[in-house]
Design goal:
173 residues; 5 helices; globular
Length: 173
């Protein structure tokens, strides 16, 4: 089981360590599932564990590259049906190893971006934020991404527990 980061005087590195903690936690959870369970939903919303990994990779890239740096990226909502923000999560057909590699690649990009900018720096307008009046600061974006990871890791905990119960397991996945 992945250990939670310890105390640190460096808030930037502490937050980056928490991102990595959640990425590893998500990976441990999905690696504990059977291959057939990765692409099947147990919930009314229809999301799958593989879809959740895909969402997290897109979400992180969306917030740091598209929102903060205002980079033009081809598919900011590639994790959503129709490529639109309001679309339901897609169930990808990629192998879980490829999805996890994309998640960790997004994390490496985020780490480099965060280390290259001041935490109180404002995002560049033109990506997710249309104008200077709507931009967010890097520390706000980091906390938003962190709460997304925490929330979705919790969703994955529930899905793994349901799958284990359906298999007759008594332990956590």
């Amino acid at each position: 089981m992945t250990a939670e980061p310890g105390n640190s005087q460096d808030v930037r590195e502490l937050l980056l360590d928490y991102f990595e903690f959640y990425r590893r936690t998500v990976e441990e959870k999905v690696r504990g599932l059977q291959p057939s369970e990765l692409y099947a939903s147990q919930l009314p919303s229809g999301w799958t564990p593989a879809g959740l990994v895909n969402h997290l990779a897109h979400m992180e890239r969306r917030w740091f590259r598209w929102a903060f740096l205002a980079e033009q990226i081809d598919d900011p909502f590639g994790d959503r049906e129709g490529g639109v923000r309001s679309g339901p999560m897609v169930n990808p057909d990629q192998d879980i190893d490829d999805l996890l590699a994309a998640l960790h690649a997004a994390g490496a990009d985020s780490r480099a971006i965060v280390r290259a900018h001041a935490l109180d720096e404002w995002a560049a307008p033109g990506g997710r934020f249309a104008d200077a009046d709507s931009v967010a600061q890097l520390h706000w974006i980091m906390l938003h991404v962190l709460q997304e990871y925490a929330r979705h890791a919790g969703h994955l905990d529930i899905a793994c527990e349901l799958r284990a119960a359906n298999r007759g397991d008594t332990g956590e996945a």
